[in-house]
Write a structure and sequence with these properties.
single chain, 54% helix, 3-stranded antiparallel β-sheet, 197 residues
Length: 197
């Protein structure tokens, strides 16, 4: 009987599937986040989490076992040097899957799989808040900027209103141009969709 002997074969034979999981796990370990389909991400989570648990004990034996799955020295080194110390106190659940929508070509369900402890936005939120405070806020509208320039001209020009009048005249013609752009009617294109040829 084959009860409960089921997992996602991903439409591939065993050798192809093992190579796919090995390459995706190595990419996840090296880059900390990859984008893939939801089915592959769920299969990758089942593949990589036991390896991460194995990396908590840094012995030659555990390194060789992990290398037999990953087959890349750089990924094994990265896993044991940077990933393992950061997830040492976590009792499992090392990865997170975030759905991102559907792929344009075939409408496959896409997602991002990432290590939980390597995403600063979800862990403590300290880094993104500091980054947002450091950025200067910029405005995209031009109206407040025009008012400030008029105020500067008023403050600097004391001699007369002869210089202010051209600035007001220059500002007046700009408004009707914007109004003509908004007022232009949009006409739908005629297509032959749904008609018999």
């Amino acid at each position: 009987m084959r009860h409960n002997k089921n997992f996602n074969h991903l439409g591939r034979q065993a050798g192809h599937r093992k190579a796919l999981m090995s390459n995706m796990a190595s990419s996840l370990i090296l880059h900390k986040r990859i984008e893939t389909t939801l089915a592959k991400a769920k299969a990758l989570r089942m593949f990589v989490e036991p390896l991460v648990t194995k990396s908590k004990e840094d012995t030659t034996h555990s390194r060789r076992i992990v290398f037999s799955y990953l087959k890349q020295k750089e990924a094994v080194t990265e896993l044991f040097r940077t990933v393992a110390p950061k997830i040492a106190e976590r009792p499992g659940g090392y990865t997170r899957i975030l759905k991102t929508g559907f792929r344009l070509g075939d409408a496959a369900d896409m997602c991002i799989i990432e290590f939980v402890d390597f995403n600063d936005a979800y862990t403590l939120g300290i880094a993104p808040a500091a980054a947002s405070e450091a950025k200067p806020k910029t405005r995209r509208s031009r109206k407040p900027a025009a008012k400030t320039t008029d105020a500067v001209e008023d403050a600097t020009v004391v001699e007369g209103e002869a210089k202010k009048a051209p600035a007001i005249k220059a500002a007046a013609p700009k408004a009707p141009k914007a109004a003509t752009k908004v007022a232009a009617p949009k006409v739908a294109k005629k297509t032959n969709v749904g008609k018999k040829m």
